[in-house]
Amino acid sequence: MSAEMWPLPSTTIAVRRFIVQYGVYVSLGIVLVAGIFLTPNLYSSQTLEVIFKQGAQLGIVAIGQTLVLLVSGLDLSMTGVIFMTSVVIARVSNGNDQMLIPAFIVAYGLGGLVGLANGFLVTKRKVPPFVATLGVLILVQGAVQAYTLGVPGGFVPDGLGIVNQSFGFITIPLILWIILSVIFIGVLRLTPYGRRIYAVGSNPIAARLSGLSVNWLVTSAYVLCSLCAVTSGIILTGYVGYVDRFIASGFDLDSIAAAVIGGTSFAGGRGSLLGTIAGVLLIQVLSTMALLLGLDIQVQLIIKGLVILVAVALYSAARVE
Amino acid sequence: MTIDPILELQHISKVYAGVPVLKDVSFACQRGQVHALVGENGAGKSTLMKIVAGAVQPNGGTITFKGETFSHLNTRLALDKGISIIYQELALIPHMTVAENIFLGREQRTSLGFTRQKLMMDEAAALLQRLGVQIDPRTPAGELTVARQQMVEIAKSLSRNADLIIMDEPSAILAGQELEQLFQIIETLTQAGVTIIYISHRLDEVFQIAKNVTVLKDGELVGTAPIEQLNRARLVEMMVGRSLDEVFPKSKHAIGDPVLVAENLSTQTLKQASFTLHAGEIVGVAGMVGSGRTELARAIFGADALQTGHITLKGVPFAPRGPQQAIENGVTLVPEDRKQQGLFTGLSIRHNITLPILKRLTRWGMVDRKAENDVIARAKSDLSINMASPELEAQFLSGGNQQKVVLAKWLQILPSVIILDEPTRGIDVGAKFEIYQLMRQLNEKGVAILMISSELVEVLGMSDRILVMQDGRIVGELAGEQVSEQAVITLATTHREGMSA
């Protein structure tokens, strides 16, 4: 009968809650301590700079991905948006610093449209997010390539090189990541919008019956996610300095991995940005350590895969549905 | 009485996740009789019967069937021994023929391994004839009415030589003639020595067909008695554990002006339904499953589009295009399926309760924690929600407390109309009583309540007026002296000429 709704013994709940709420932070702590002994170089200023810079690029995308995951969605189109952003910057500005702002505006505008398209397909046409955003990814990549005819023209303005400036290990991307994280953590925790995002992901039917505009909320998450991708695309373009089709390959899956390691549920309605941030750092630190230890790329991938699987297995065992 | 018990349950107990759902239940069934099992939703009837059928393993106690004693059974063993259960959700495979369904998993085969279609058809036909029903065994099961599917299920039980057939609330899906036919079949079966355990909510039919009754309440045995030693009122008291006057608080004040007037509402299922809700009254909606009760609620709530008809709310035309508009105008719905539609099980109690009033609680773009705490504290005391902390996820609450959380959510906006769909499903008796009290408190504040319920006892006990539905129509309205279980069932099940044309 209705066995699931009965309360569990409180100790079990406490242990499970601990795993769900703090698992990723404890893991990150363990890895960081292990780093002191295994790879002391991890704490050199240069290494930290790289970790944080790369962490910021992935981290900003992961903010958007977390939002989408919270509304039971998934965004695979972000690498397309990032590629599109770098092409737009190179084409619109054509190496001219004065044209950077107009280029940003065009990039954010187009990114927003991609988010709207994702949201429309998922909410109005009821296309599963995986299929919808994959379709949009292919469409965006194709459209951009049709526009460039395969030859990435234009130039990235020197001014965008500002993203490479560092003060110790602090870089502009890191600062941006921190600012965006603080804003979105605040939005999710403190505002009615944040509450509604969680509600929609937790139970879309109840959300509708509670008078929430479910479609609008879901679409807004996709739009914000695309805007995060544009931001990350701007940083990446400045970082690389030229247009590259594979500029962000792996970001879509890595951002999902970071969120999931951080405790965000694929089923929606559960998770926190702080967890995602820890997830991003865990991925970055682990791959940097593997690099410092001189492990092969294959071994790095295996480690990453194991971390994801262990995290997911722990969470699903710990969650009582 | 214990002349020839076919089934004896002794000290059966079952614990789910640390919480007992069956506590030391013992009773015996006599061979060749109809034994009724009654109790409210959540009393443990289904769990107990699943234990007998081997679908659930008990934590303690023994099952003695035809002289053999078991500590537990599994479904295969139960079937082999002659125990068969017919669930409310029928388990036939729609695209397979009646005969194939009857012999599913035990197909007769030739030496080459082919199924012996002809033989199975003949045997199926013979079984159905024994039951006195005319069904072609070659028909795909999905094309049969629910009632006829039920007959096929019975034939399936017979084909397995069942000595004991458990029927889980057949009258929830059968009506009128169909139910009469079922009773005839039951009569035939018992005369042939088959024992029937009949789970039902309808006390009248219990008195009609059962020889003995066992009552469960909150997982405990209240008692087993021969039907002649009981009357209706006594049986209800055994089920709810209090006298009726205590359970159902009566309205203490005058009923106010009309709040919601619905005229000729038609949707895909609904046919020209008209009714009026007054301030401070409870209108019960009774009818069979599928009679259009839920659709009536959905139409008022704006969840289904109206084909004809119009609604006025407090004298103003009201045409909600969706739940959002309905809620903004003070019409709210507490849906029947609490966990799927009403509650955010993964969210905290706090987040559940204040969701509809976030706008009111917002200052400087953020949710005002202090104001919110006040709301939570008030809800907790007003509804006596039993919770360790408002930060606890709603899934960890008991059914009764979950329902209070859902109600608390809507009380924050003090709606003018609340639609309650199965308000006390899966809730223990204590919490039920509190929810009834709460409904009356809402009435006193002028809230009109439309209550849909399949628990007749509840509809009869709580409603100031009762609308009875059948086939998408409101076929009758009962109030005051006219109200009786018989009157409701007659209206709900009597087939009307030209109605389903």
Tell me what the structure shows:
The complex is a heterodimer of chains A (321) and B (501). Helices cover 72% and strands 1% of the residues of chain A. Chain A has 321 residues and is mostly helical. Chain A has a single domain (45-318), classed as ABC transporter involved in vitamin B12 uptake, BtuC. Chain A has a two-stranded antiparallel sheet. In chain A, a hairpin with a 2-residue loop joins strand 1 and strand 2 (170-171). Chain B contains 19 helices and 22 strands. The termini of chain B are far apart. With 501 residues, chain B is an alpha/beta fold. Chain B is 35% helix and 25% strand. Chain B has two domains: 5-242, Rossmann fold; 247-348 and 394-493, P-loop containing nucleotide triphosphate hydrolases (Rossmann fold, 3-Layer(aba) Sandwich). Chain A binds chain B through residues 1-9, 13, 186, 190-192, 195-196, 198-199, 202-203, 205-213, 269-270, 320-321, and chain B through 16-19, 21, 42, 44, 46-47, 301, 303, 322-324, 326-328, 333, 335, 339-347, 351, 354-356, 358-359, 361-362, 365-367, 395-399, 402, 409, 426.
Strand order of the largest sheet of chain B: 6-7-8-3-9-10
Flag low-confidence runs of chain B: 497-501
Tally of separate helices of chain B:
19
What are the low-pLDDT stretches of chain A, counting only 5+ consecutive residues below 50? 1-8
Number of domains of chain B: 2
Amino-to-carboxy terminus distance of chain B: 50 Å
- Class by alpha and beta content of chain A: mainly alpha
> What's the helical proportion of residues of chain B?
25-40%
Shape of chain A: globular
Can you give the mean pLDDT of chain A?
Answer: 88
Q: What is Rg of chain A?
A: 20 Å
Strand content of chain A: under 5%
What level of helicity do the residues of chain A show? Answer: over 70%
User: CATH homologous superfamily of the largest domain in chain B - what is it?
Assistant: P-loop containing nucleotide triphosphate hydrolases
Mean pLDDT of chain B: 86
Let me know the number of strands of chain A. 2
Strand order in space, largest sheet of chain A: 1-2
Which CATH class of chain A? Mainly Alpha
Biggest β-sheet of chain A: count, sense, barrel? Answer: 2 strands, antiparallel
